[in-house]
Amino acid sequence: MSANLADRKCRPCEGGVEPLTAEQSIQLMAALHPDWTLSADGLEISRQFTFPAYSRSLGFANAVAWIAISEGHHPVLTVAYGSCAVSYTTHAINGLSDNDFICAAKIDRLSVAAT
């Protein structure tokens, strides 16, 4: 199912739609790498990636930024020496949307290619 998500394209979300329910989010979480976590309030998904050097963390963050620009859906990135944390939520609806999971699946695909 992750491959199906990664093959999809984000749709613009300017509000006016309901965020995913907890049940829908849990179902979509099953399609992602198990290191993704769903926040306790169900409003955000996040994953921490680790790297052996700062240059690799930056390279990964830039690749994630390219996905974000291509999809028009932008995460919060926290870059440190040996890590990059990625968090998604859809601010326009104050919760999660399919776009968050589509981008997470694309990042899963990217992280496999980077190793």
* Low confidence ranges: none
Span from first to last CA?
Answer: 21 Å
Please give the radius of gyration in angstroms: 13 Å
Beta-strand portion reads 15-25%
| CATH topology grouping | Gyrase A, domain 2
- How many helices does DSSP assign? 4
The count of DSSP E runs of length 2 or more, i.e. the number of strands, is 4
Element pattern in H and E: HHEEHEEH
Under the CATH scheme, which architecture would be assigned? 2-Layer Sandwich
Number of separate domains? 1
- Main beta sheet: strand number and arrangement? 4 strands, antiparallel
The 3D shape can be described as globular
Q: CATH homologous superfamily?
A: Transcriptional coactivator/pterin dehydratase
Summarize the structure in words.
This protein is of the alpha+beta class. The chain has one domain (about 1-5, about 20-115): Gyrase A, domain 2. The protein has four helices and four strands; from the N terminus they run ααββαββα. It has helices at about 1-5, 20-30, 55-70, 100-115; strands spanning about 35-40, 45-50, 75-80, 85-90. Strands 1-2-4-3 form a four-stranded antiparallel β-sheet, covered by helices on one side. α3 (about 55-70) packs antiparallel against α4 (about 100-115). The mean pLDDT is about 95.
Short note summarizing the structure:
The protein has helices at 2-7, 22-29, 54-71, 98-114; strands at 37-38, 45-50, 76-80, 83-88. The protein is of the alpha+beta class and 115 residues long. The two termini are 21 Å apart.
What secondary-structure arrangement, pairings included, does this model have?
Blueprint: H1 2-7, H2 22-29, E1 37-38, E2 45-50, H3 54-71, E3 76-80, E4 83-88, H4 98-114
